[in-house]
């Protein structure tokens, strides 16, 4: 039972990452690979500040700010130096590996077992550490979804969404598409780094290697949410992405449950994404023809 | 008012593929004037519009919109003065966003964009009234994604979006060419009403359709190889038939051919 509750807690802690990935890949149509570096950056910043006695929430705020900076570097490499967006993200995430080590004062791993985290104040109400995670991260995720829902319906939010949809139209409407990508990547990587901080606080350590494959995990959550829930509208889609993150961690837990080892998880993750991407196609093949054509169109 | 002074645009300068798209265009449009632009493929019609919109930049000459010299301004900076409708109805709107969201994007053109809620009840009422006027029933579909609309409806919406912030110049780039005949008629009528009768916007309208070029607006210019070879208005234009226009068109081409031959003969 603990395995499953733990998976839900972890899924909710990772939900902010998934929302960040959704923002870049889907809303901005900018495949941003900075994520593999900004996730451990957030963990590192939050962890080092915690060991120095900072307030856990304040440490998360600084983690988010650091992530925003990382995202802005990627955006500027792309818009000012005309470096391909994928490459810009890879370059920044590689550079961040060094930065993250420096932030953690050249230690590959920072334990957080003796310091207070955002989960500590709840301990007196919820004894079980996994349930505590579900509660705290659940509240955080709901607040983030509400925040993003509000933001994506403001003037800037509309401009952000339109940038990913139709750049020609966006420029004709007097919107600086490069500025929108700068804002969008900053926001997305702030979410990812924030999520890195949450996960570090939950697991009780920050590790320099914890970002590896984050982008695929984030995408898995986005694609699972979209495929299983097939949401309409911005609000539903945000919820679906958050739910996708929980489902993804559930599947990973399931794989562990049936006896696969932690080293098998890469293959499992890859298979999950492939299956989720194949579902619409398979659905079309199984259905009778007219319906199949309709399904393929949606 | 909009003024172009001796505008030259060249693509691929210094290579074998060098194209002199505009060769010394000088053109002044008075306030409220709608000028139609005709010419064959490659004559420079789209380059002319793109130069005014800030998509391409002249290597010589000035572009002025109202009393502002916009020659050095990039596209999104001068967009507050410029409304545009493209040939492809898919280009002017964001398909995944709703009708009201698209209108809201356009209504903020030339204003700052901040954290204000984009579409509230006042905006919704305003959009509903605007849409009711164009008579396509879109006022009942404010919350429908634009991707669900027909090409004609999307183009009507784009035209509304291009004009609602009252631009100083409106650029129409063959905006009825990609529509089915019925929708093309509808959009042309809407253009005549919205742009000419009601708002009296200063407009450049590129068209392949000679009949349309003479039917709408008060002046017609013909481009050939990056130059204005014909500028018709007033009496002269009123008496013109499509045949006359085609003849003048061929004459100008003939002239160009003769020029080329002169260059080629040793």
Can you walk me through this structure?
The complex is a heterodimer of chains A (298) and B (266). Chain A is mostly helical and 298 residues long. Chain A has one domain. Helix content of chain A is 75%, strand content 2%. Chain A is built from twelve helices and two strands, in the order H-H-H-H-E-H-H-H-H-E-H-H-H-H. Chain A has a two-stranded antiparallel sheet. The longest helix of chain A is centred in the middle third of the chain and has 27 residues. The model of chain A has no long low-confidence stretch (mean pLDDT 93). By secondary structure, chain B is an alpha/beta fold. Chain B has a single domain, classed as Rossmann fold (3-Layer(aba) Sandwich). Helix content of chain B is 38%, strand content 23%. Chain B is built from nine helices and ten strands. The longest helix of chain B is centred in the last third of the chain and has 23 residues. Chain B is globular and about 65 Å long. The chains are: A mainly alpha (298), B alpha/beta (266).
Count of helical regions of chain B = 9
Question: Helix proportion of residues of chain B, in percent?
Answer: 25-40%
User: Termini distance of chain A?
Assistant: 38 Å
CATH class of chain B: Alpha Beta
Question: What would CATH call the architecture of chain B?
Answer: 3-Layer(aba) Sandwich
Low-confidence residue ranges of chain B: none
Poorly predicted ranges of chain A = none
Portion in strands of chain A: under 5%
Query: Strand pairing plus helix content of chain B: what structural class?
Result: alpha/beta
Tell me the helix content of chain A: over 70%
């Amino acid at each position: 039972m603990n395995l499953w509750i733990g998976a839900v807690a972890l899924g909710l802690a990772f939900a902010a990452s998934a929302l960040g990935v959704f923002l870049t890949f889907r809303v901005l149509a900018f495949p941003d690979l900075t994520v593999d570096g900004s996730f451990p950056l957030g963990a590192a910043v939050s962890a080092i500040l915690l060991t120095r006695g900072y307030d856990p929430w304040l440490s998360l705020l600084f983690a988010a700010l650091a992530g925003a900076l990382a995202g802005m570097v990627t955006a500027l490499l792309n818009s000012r130096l005309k470096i391909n967006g994928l490459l810009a993200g890879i370059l920044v995430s590689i550079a961040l590996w060094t930065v993250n080590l420096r932030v953690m004062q050249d230690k590959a791993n920072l334990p957080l077992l003796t310091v207070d985290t955002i989960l500590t104040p709840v301990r007196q109400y919820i004894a079980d550490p996994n349930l505590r995670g579900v509660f705290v991260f659940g509240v955080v995720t709901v607040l983030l979804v509400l925040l993003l829902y509000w933001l994506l319906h403001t003037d800037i939010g509309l401009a952000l969404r339109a940038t990913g949809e139709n750049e020609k139209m966006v420029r004709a409407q007097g919107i600086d598409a490069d500025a929108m990508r700068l804002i969008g990547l900053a926001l997305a990587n702030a979410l990812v780094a924030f999520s890195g901080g949450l996960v570090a606080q939950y697991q009780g350590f920050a590790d320099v290697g914890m970002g590896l494959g984050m982008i695929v995990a984030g995408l898995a959550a986005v694609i699972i949410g979209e495929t299983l829930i097939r949401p309409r509208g911005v609000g539903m889609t945000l919820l679906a992405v958050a739910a996708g993150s929980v489902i993804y961690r559930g599947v990973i837990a399931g794989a562990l449950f049936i006896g696969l080892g932690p080293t098998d998880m890469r293959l499992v993750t890859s298979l999950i994404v492939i299956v989720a991407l194949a579902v619409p196609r398979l659905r079309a093949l199984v259905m009778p023809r007219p319906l199949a054509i309709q399904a393929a169109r949606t | 008012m909009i003024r172009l002074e001796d505008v030259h645009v060249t693509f691929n300068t210094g290579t074998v593929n060098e194209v002199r798209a505009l060769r010394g265009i000088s053109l002044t449009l008075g306030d409220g004037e709608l000028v139609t632009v005709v010419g064959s493929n490659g004559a420079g019609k789209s380059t002319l519009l793109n130069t005014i919109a800030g998509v391409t930049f002249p290597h010589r000459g000035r572009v002025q919109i109202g009393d502002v010299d916009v020659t050095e301004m990039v596209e999104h900076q001068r967009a507050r003065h410029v409304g545009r409708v493209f040939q492809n109805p898919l280009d002017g709107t964001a398909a995944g966003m709703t009708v009201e969201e698209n209108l809201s994007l356009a209504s903020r053109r030339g204003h700052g964009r901040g954290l204000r809620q984009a579409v509230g009840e006042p905006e919704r009422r305003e959009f509903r009234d605007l849409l009711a006027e164009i008579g396509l029933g879109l006022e009942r579909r404010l919350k429908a994604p634009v991707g669900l609309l027909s090409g004609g409806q999307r183009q009507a919406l784009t035209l509304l979006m291009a004009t609602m912030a009252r631009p100083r110049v409106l650029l129409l780039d063959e905006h009825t060419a990609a529509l089915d005949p019925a929708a093309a008629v509808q959009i042309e009528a809407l253009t005549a009403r919205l742009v000419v009768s009601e708002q009296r916007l200063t407009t450049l309208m590129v068209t392949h359709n000679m009949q349309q070029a003479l039917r709408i607006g008060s002046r017609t210019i013909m481009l050939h190889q990056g130059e204005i070879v014909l500028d018709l208005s007033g009496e002269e234009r009123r008496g013109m038939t499509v045949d006359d226009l085609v003849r003048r068109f061929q004459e100008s081409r003939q002239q160009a051919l003769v020029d080329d031959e002169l260059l080629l003969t040793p």
